[in-house]
Design goal:
Alpha-Beta Plaits; about 25% helix; single chain; alpha+beta; 2 helices; two-stranded antiparallel ribbon
Length: about 60
């Protein structure tokens, strides 16, 4: 599983970081993915981050 953030949609709420700090981090005022592959143990938290993103900026493949 891979997570992606659309920087054009990201509003910098940091909700993704609260939900899944293993995968997401801040780069300036926007969120970013900090690892290529989501660890198996973080997949549910990553989905929670995607579902809770107020801007819909997170996608998972």
């Amino acid at each position: 599983m891979k997570a992606k953030i659309d920087k054009n949609l990201c509003v910098g709420s940091q909700d993704c970081i609260s939900a899944c700090p293993e995968v997401f981090k801040m780069e300036g005022e926007k969120a970013a993915v900090q690892i290529d592959q989501v660890p198996k143990e973080a997949e549910d938290k990553c989905r929670t981050a995607r579902d809770g993103c107020p801007a819909g900026a997170i996608s998972i493949e």
